[in-house]
Amino acid sequence: MRVKFLGTAGARYVMATQLRSSAGTYIEVNGKKIVLDPGPGTLVRMAKSRPRIPPSSLDGVILTHIHLDHSGDVNALLDAMTEGVKRKRGFLLAPAQAVEGEDRVVFRYLMGAVEIIRMKAREKYSLEGMELEISCPHVHGVETYGVKISHEKGKLCFIVDTAFFPELPECYSDCSYLVVNTVLKDCNPRIKHLCLENVKELAIRIKPRLLIMTHFGMNMLRAKPWEMAQELSRTLGLEIKAASDGMLLEI
Fold first, then answer.
1. 3-class DSSP assignment, residue 118
2. Cis link prior to 51 (omega < 30° from 0)?
3. In the chain, which end has fewer C-beta atoms inside a 10 angstrom radius, N or C?
4. pLDDT value for 128
5. CB atoms within 10 A of CB 227
6. Architecture of the structural domain at 2-250
7. How many C-beta atoms lie closer than 10 Å to residue 186's C-beta?
8. How far apart are CA 41 and CA 200, in angstroms?
9. Cα gap 92→233, rounded to integer Å
Protein backbone atom coordinates (compact mmCIF):
# COMPACT_ATOMS: atom_id res chain seq x y z
CA MET A 1 0.00 0.00 0.00
CA ARG A 2 1.38 3.38 -1.06
CA VAL A 3 0.02 6.85 -0.31
CA LYS A 4 1.28 10.01 -1.99
CA PHE A 5 0.13 13.35 -0.62
CA LEU A 6 -0.16 15.38 -3.82
CA GLY A 7 -1.32 18.35 -1.76
CA THR A 8 -1.70 19.26 1.92
CA ALA A 9 -3.60 22.56 1.81
CA GLY A 10 -6.62 23.07 4.01
CA ALA A 11 -9.10 25.95 4.20
CA ARG A 12 -9.84 28.58 1.59
CA TYR A 13 -6.91 30.96 2.06
CA VAL A 14 -4.21 28.30 1.75
CA MET A 15 -6.01 26.86 -1.28
CA ALA A 16 -6.42 30.27 -2.94
CA THR A 17 -2.79 31.26 -2.41
CA GLN A 18 -1.39 27.77 -3.05
CA LEU A 19 1.01 28.13 -0.12
CA ARG A 20 0.48 24.37 -0.07
CA SER A 21 -0.95 22.48 -3.02
CA SER A 22 -4.69 21.75 -2.84
CA ALA A 23 -4.33 18.57 -4.91
CA GLY A 24 -5.76 15.30 -3.60
CA THR A 25 -4.20 12.11 -2.24
CA TYR A 26 -3.04 9.26 -4.49
CA ILE A 27 -3.43 5.76 -3.09
CA GLU A 28 -2.27 2.35 -4.38
CA VAL A 29 -3.66 -0.78 -2.73
CA ASN A 30 -2.71 -4.21 -4.06
CA GLY A 31 -2.03 -2.76 -7.50
CA LYS A 32 -5.27 -0.74 -7.66
CA LYS A 33 -5.03 3.03 -7.95
CA ILE A 34 -7.37 5.73 -6.67
CA VAL A 35 -7.37 9.44 -5.91
CA LEU A 36 -9.07 10.78 -2.79
CA ASP A 37 -10.58 14.29 -2.83
CA PRO A 38 -9.16 15.79 -6.05
CA GLY A 39 -9.04 19.48 -5.15
CA PRO A 40 -7.79 22.22 -7.51
CA GLY A 41 -4.48 21.28 -9.13
CA THR A 42 -4.76 17.51 -8.81
CA LEU A 43 -4.44 16.83 -12.53
CA VAL A 44 -1.35 19.07 -12.78
CA ARG A 45 0.30 17.49 -9.73
CA MET A 46 -0.26 14.02 -11.15
CA ALA A 47 1.39 15.07 -14.41
CA LYS A 48 4.36 16.59 -12.56
CA SER A 49 4.74 13.71 -10.11
CA ARG A 50 7.89 11.61 -10.40
CA PRO A 51 7.13 9.05 -11.61
CA ARG A 52 4.20 10.58 -13.49
CA ILE A 53 0.73 9.32 -12.54
CA PRO A 54 -1.36 8.93 -15.72
CA PRO A 55 -5.07 9.57 -15.01
CA SER A 56 -5.94 6.80 -17.45
CA SER A 57 -4.26 4.33 -15.06
CA LEU A 58 -6.69 5.11 -12.23
CA ASP A 59 -9.29 2.61 -11.12
CA GLY A 60 -11.43 5.14 -9.31
CA VAL A 61 -11.97 8.44 -7.53
CA ILE A 62 -13.29 8.96 -4.00
CA LEU A 63 -14.95 12.26 -3.10
CA THR A 64 -15.75 12.71 0.60
CA HIS A 65 -17.79 15.92 0.21
CA ILE A 66 -18.57 18.72 -2.23
CA HIS A 67 -16.45 21.59 -0.89
CA LEU A 68 -14.23 23.18 -3.51
CA ASP A 69 -10.88 22.31 -1.93
CA HIS A 70 -11.88 18.64 -2.18
CA SER A 71 -13.81 18.55 -5.46
CA GLY A 72 -12.32 21.26 -7.67
CA ASP A 73 -10.66 18.81 -10.10
CA VAL A 74 -13.16 15.94 -9.89
CA ASN A 75 -14.59 16.57 -13.38
CA ALA A 76 -11.18 17.02 -14.99
CA LEU A 77 -9.97 13.81 -13.38
CA LEU A 78 -13.01 11.75 -14.40
CA ASP A 79 -12.76 13.08 -17.95
CA ALA A 80 -9.07 12.21 -18.12
CA MET A 81 -9.57 8.82 -16.46
CA THR A 82 -12.07 7.85 -19.17
CA GLU A 83 -9.92 9.36 -21.95
CA GLY A 84 -12.46 12.04 -22.76
CA VAL A 85 -15.41 9.71 -22.09
CA LYS A 86 -14.22 7.42 -24.88
CA ARG A 87 -13.94 4.47 -22.48
CA LYS A 88 -16.36 3.60 -19.72
CA ARG A 89 -14.13 2.61 -16.85
CA GLY A 90 -13.49 3.10 -13.17
CA PHE A 91 -15.75 4.32 -10.39
CA LEU A 92 -16.68 7.43 -8.45
CA LEU A 93 -17.53 6.85 -4.79
CA ALA A 94 -19.18 10.02 -3.47
CA PRO A 95 -22.05 11.32 -1.32
CA ALA A 96 -25.41 11.57 -3.10
CA GLN A 97 -25.16 15.36 -2.72
CA ALA A 98 -22.20 15.37 -5.12
CA VAL A 99 -24.14 13.82 -8.00
CA GLU A 100 -27.75 14.87 -7.33
CA GLY A 101 -29.71 18.08 -6.82
CA GLU A 102 -28.75 21.73 -7.04
CA ASP A 103 -25.45 21.32 -5.16
CA ARG A 104 -24.11 18.57 -7.45
CA VAL A 105 -20.49 19.02 -8.50
CA VAL A 106 -20.17 16.23 -11.09
CA PHE A 107 -21.09 17.14 -14.68
CA ARG A 108 -23.95 15.16 -16.20
CA TYR A 109 -22.00 14.14 -19.28
CA LEU A 110 -19.57 12.22 -17.06
CA MET A 111 -22.24 10.29 -15.18
CA GLY A 112 -22.44 7.53 -17.76
CA ALA A 113 -18.70 7.21 -18.20
CA VAL A 114 -17.95 5.77 -14.74
CA GLU A 115 -19.73 3.64 -12.21
CA ILE A 116 -21.36 6.00 -9.71
CA ILE A 117 -21.62 4.67 -6.16
CA ARG A 118 -23.41 6.83 -3.60
CA MET A 119 -21.82 6.69 -0.17
CA LYS A 120 -23.84 5.45 2.75
CA ALA A 121 -22.69 5.68 6.35
CA ARG A 122 -20.95 2.54 7.66
CA GLU A 123 -21.44 0.68 4.36
CA LYS A 124 -18.74 -1.63 2.99
CA TYR A 125 -17.82 -1.82 -0.70
CA SER A 126 -15.67 -4.11 -2.79
CA LEU A 127 -14.55 -2.00 -5.75
CA GLU A 128 -11.99 -3.12 -8.32
CA GLY A 129 -10.71 -5.63 -5.78
CA MET A 130 -10.38 -3.04 -2.99
CA GLU A 131 -12.24 -3.34 0.28
CA LEU A 132 -13.54 0.06 1.37
CA GLU A 133 -15.69 1.15 4.29
CA ILE A 134 -17.46 4.45 4.87
CA SER A 135 -17.32 6.06 8.30
CA CYS A 136 -20.12 7.42 10.41
CA PRO A 137 -21.42 10.81 9.16
CA HIS A 138 -19.14 13.75 9.88
CA VAL A 139 -20.25 17.12 11.23
CA HIS A 140 -19.29 19.56 8.51
CA GLY A 141 -22.34 21.40 7.16
CA VAL A 142 -22.59 19.26 4.02
CA GLU A 143 -22.88 15.50 3.55
CA THR A 144 -19.40 14.29 4.53
CA TYR A 145 -17.85 10.90 5.30
CA GLY A 146 -14.42 9.54 6.08
CA VAL A 147 -13.02 6.47 4.36
CA LYS A 148 -11.39 3.25 5.59
CA ILE A 149 -9.31 1.08 3.24
CA SER A 150 -8.59 -2.51 4.28
CA HIS A 151 -5.16 -4.04 3.81
CA GLU A 152 -3.41 -7.12 5.18
CA LYS A 153 -1.24 -4.80 7.30
CA GLY A 154 -4.27 -3.05 8.82
CA LYS A 155 -6.84 -0.40 7.96
CA LEU A 156 -5.76 2.90 6.44
CA CYS A 157 -8.28 5.54 7.44
CA PHE A 158 -8.88 9.14 6.44
CA ILE A 159 -10.62 11.43 8.91
CA VAL A 160 -11.53 14.25 6.58
CA ASP A 161 -13.13 17.58 7.44
CA THR A 162 -15.37 17.55 10.50
CA ALA A 163 -16.01 19.19 13.81
CA PHE A 164 -15.05 17.02 16.76
CA PHE A 165 -17.96 15.08 18.25
CA PRO A 166 -18.00 12.49 21.05
CA GLU A 167 -18.50 9.47 18.78
CA LEU A 168 -15.67 10.35 16.41
CA PRO A 169 -12.87 8.30 18.09
CA GLU A 170 -15.13 5.24 18.25
CA CYS A 171 -15.95 5.59 14.54
CA TYR A 172 -12.25 5.07 13.77
CA SER A 173 -11.25 2.77 16.63
CA ASP A 174 -10.32 -0.06 14.23
CA CYS A 175 -7.78 1.99 12.26
CA SER A 176 -4.08 1.10 12.23
CA TYR A 177 -2.94 3.99 10.04
CA LEU A 178 -4.76 7.26 10.50
CA VAL A 179 -4.65 10.36 8.29
CA VAL A 180 -6.33 13.34 9.95
CA ASN A 181 -7.31 16.64 8.33
CA THR A 182 -5.92 19.14 10.85
CA VAL A 183 -6.97 22.59 9.67
CA LEU A 184 -6.76 24.45 12.99
CA LYS A 185 -4.01 24.97 15.53
CA ASP A 186 -6.43 26.25 18.17
CA CYS A 187 -9.94 24.91 18.56
CA ASN A 188 -12.83 27.12 17.46
CA PRO A 189 -16.35 25.77 18.03
CA ARG A 190 -17.70 28.02 15.25
CA ILE A 191 -15.47 26.34 12.64
CA LYS A 192 -16.35 22.75 11.74
CA HIS A 193 -12.76 21.52 11.48
CA LEU A 194 -10.43 19.59 13.75
CA CYS A 195 -7.71 21.29 15.79
CA LEU A 196 -4.44 20.09 17.29
CA GLU A 197 -6.05 19.24 20.64
CA ASN A 198 -8.63 17.09 18.81
CA VAL A 199 -5.80 15.21 17.10
CA LYS A 200 -4.19 14.58 20.46
CA GLU A 201 -7.43 13.11 21.83
CA LEU A 202 -7.89 10.94 18.73
CA ALA A 203 -4.33 9.62 19.07
CA ILE A 204 -4.77 8.80 22.77
CA ARG A 205 -8.08 7.02 22.31
CA ILE A 206 -7.39 5.18 19.02
CA LYS A 207 -3.65 4.51 19.45
CA PRO A 208 -2.89 3.95 15.74
CA ARG A 209 0.48 2.58 14.63
CA LEU A 210 0.94 5.79 12.68
CA LEU A 211 -0.98 9.09 12.61
CA ILE A 212 -0.37 11.63 9.86
CA MET A 213 -1.69 15.19 10.03
CA THR A 214 -2.53 16.95 6.75
CA HIS A 215 -4.88 19.56 5.20
CA PHE A 216 -3.38 22.51 7.08
CA GLY A 217 -4.89 25.94 7.49
CA MET A 218 -2.82 29.11 7.76
CA ASN A 219 -2.41 29.06 11.55
CA MET A 220 -1.17 25.48 11.42
CA LEU A 221 1.39 26.35 8.75
CA ARG A 222 2.64 29.35 10.72
CA ALA A 223 3.08 27.12 13.78
CA LYS A 224 5.19 24.60 11.78
CA PRO A 225 3.12 21.39 11.83
CA TRP A 226 6.21 19.17 11.55
CA GLU A 227 7.43 20.52 14.91
CA MET A 228 4.01 20.03 16.51
CA ALA A 229 3.94 16.44 15.21
CA GLN A 230 7.35 15.76 16.77
CA GLU A 231 6.21 17.20 20.09
CA LEU A 232 3.03 15.08 20.09
CA SER A 233 5.11 11.98 19.30
CA ARG A 234 7.38 12.65 22.28
CA THR A 235 4.48 13.42 24.60
CA LEU A 236 2.26 10.46 23.65
CA GLY A 237 4.85 7.85 22.71
CA LEU A 238 3.14 7.32 19.35
CA GLU A 239 4.41 7.80 15.80
CA ILE A 240 2.91 11.05 14.54
CA LYS A 241 3.96 12.88 11.38
CA ALA A 242 2.98 16.01 9.47
CA ALA A 243 2.45 15.48 5.74
CA SER A 244 4.16 17.66 3.14
CA ASP A 245 3.38 18.11 -0.54
CA GLY A 246 4.68 15.10 -2.44
CA MET A 247 5.34 13.01 0.67
CA LEU A 248 5.21 9.25 0.01
CA LEU A 249 4.07 6.74 2.61
CA GLU A 250 4.67 3.04 2.00
CA ILE A 251 3.05 0.36 4.13
1. strand
2. yes
3. C
4. 81
5. 10
6. 4-Layer Sandwich (3.60)
7. 10
8. 30
9. 36
